[in-house]
Design brief:
This protein is of the alpha/beta class. It has helices spanning 4-19, 25-41, 46-60, 71-86, 114-127, 144-155, 168-181, 199-212, 227-240, 257-266, 287-294, 300-310, 313-324, 330-343, 346-350, 368-379, 383-387, 394-404, 408-436, and strands at 102-107, 132-136, 158-160, 186-190, 216-222, 244-248, 270-274, 282-284. It is flat.
Length: 446
């Protein structure tokens, strides 16, 4: 899970400050030492970590913070603000050309995930009402063109290819011409990478840049490589001049150092984050929301956006009514599991809920095989049991397990998942109502 190690340590350190009725300068400095260690362990650049801690300390020991009625909460707010600033402050969107097509050139090292990310970005833009075209300009890596074509077909986006015998510069120019003639308003160019930065790689991407004059040059980097991802970003920016960064595998990086360092080091914003292996696994990068997640304050806005995309509005209203009247049944649970699966891994959703301890709910990710098992267990229940799960005692569980071809342990797991999901969704319904009324508050302002 993204930032898991860093988030845990920061939350633990700041919890001590929040619980203190009175703070001294010494208390703040000791806490900031722990924060600096947490940042360094998360693979954040030493300079970035040092500057961050200095800024927070300077603000925390000044401006009457320590003399305020809630000094701990004020310090947490400063940390939140500085984390947001560190990652770019505001969301950086793609700059679309005034005259289509907008040309987006993806660059990066081999293995960073450029080809997959090109398809993810194409699907994302397609959902925004654009008509993208993917251009296969990686003529060196075996199967790169085929991979792009297969993914393009999956997301319903055309792929321009001229095989692997022509010069990538000529292919890029021909792709631009094709996009202009065929009404494509976005052209996404998948370029070749190398295992390391070399002169040949840079010459090629510079020549493509000169030939098609891209609106945006986005560097795709693997966040799992930590500090090396930042070094790659700095090198590409110096030699090519990038407009932004896409971090892949951010959901798998428990450290998060790349996300916290890349903007400070290069001055270029993170525009998107790749999450999961599926082709819809891409999110716009919101620095304020990410800072909130790291500090355990949740990310309700992203959660609601995901829900609005995945859930049928009429069914959502019916569900809200059921949650308010305590009528949530096992049949509702099965339907919500299937819809929640469309929102992404449950672990990622949990870290978006303020105050939710995601560690207690690990292992609830539901894949296709699990859904089949859950469905079999629920269908083995009587109608009365589905409506009123409290009556499901030991003998009933044994019967349900036998009827579904599963074990009592499997039934117990489904029962536990039902109760936990019921609590989570009840909390979510309340937060959504608060946001709609403009009453959403962060924990440190309560």
């Amino acid at each position: 899970m993204a930032f898991e190690g860093l988030a845990g340590k920061l939350q633990e350190t700041l919890k001590k400050l929040k619980g203190a009725g009175k703070l001294t300068e010494k208390d703040v400095k000791e806490a900031m030492r722990e924060v600096r260690m947490a940042l360094l362990e998360a693979d954040v650049s030493f300079k970035v970590a040092k500057d961050f801690v200095n800024k927070v300390t300077e603000k925390a020991v000044g401006e009457g913070v320590l003399e305020s009625l809630t000094p701990g909460q004020q310090v947490i707010k400063i940390v939140n603000d500085e984390l947001t600033e560190l990652m770019g402050n505001t969301q950086s969107k793609i700059a679309f050309a005034s005259k289509p097509p907008t040309v987006i050139m993806l660059v990066g090292l081999q293995g960073a995930g450029k080809t997959t990310m090109g398809s993810k970005l194409a699907l994302y833009l397609k959902k925004q009402g654009k008509t993208p075209l993917l251009a296969a300009c990686d003529v060196y890596r075996p199967a790169a063109i085929k991979q792009l074509q297969v993914n393009g077909e999956k997301v319903g986006v055309d792929v321009f290819s001229m095989g692997d015998k022509l010069n990538p510069v000529d292919i890029a120019k021909a792709a631009l011409e094709f996009a202009e003639k065929n009404g494509k308003d976005v052209l996404i160019i998948d370029t070749a990478g190398r295992l390391h930065i070399d002169e040949e790689l840079m010459d090629e991407v510079v020549n493509i840049k000169k030939s098609v004059k891209p609106t945006e040059i986005l560097l795709v980097v693997d966040s799992m490589t930590g500090q090396e991802a930042v070094n790659v970003a700095e090198s590409f920016n110096n030699k090519l001049g990038i407009d932004g960064v896409i971090l892949t595998k951010l959901d798998s990086d428990t450290r998060g150092g790349a996300a916290l360092s890349v903007k400070a080091i290069t001055g270029k914003p993170i525009k998107f984050a790749g999450i999961g292996e599926k082709l819809d696994g891409i999110e716009p990068f919101h620095p304020d929301r990410m800072a909130s997640r790291i500090l355990g304050m949740g990310d309700v806005l992203t959660l609601i956006e995901k829900a609005q995309t995945a859930f049928d509005e009429k069914k959502a209203m019916e569900l809200e009514k059921k949650m308010r009247t305590q009528q949530f049944t096992f049949e509702d649970y099965l339907e919500q599991l299937q819809q929640m699966k469309n929102m992404g891994p449950i672990g990622q959703l949990l870290e978006m809920i303020p105050g939710m301890n995601s560690s207690k709910l690990k292992g609830l990710e539901v894949d296709e095989k699990e859904l089949v098992k859950v469905e079999a267990i629920i269908k083995s229940m009587t109608k009365k049991e589905r409506i009123n799960p409290d009556i499901i005692n030991g003998s009933r569980r044994k019967r349900i397990a036998a009827g579904s071809g599963t074990t009592i342990q499997d039934v117990n797991k489904v029962m536990k998942g039902f109760e936990q999901t019921k609590k989570m969704m009840k909390q979510f319904v309340g937060m959504e109502k608060d946001i709609k009324k403009g009453k959403k508050k962060f924990p440190f302002f309560k």
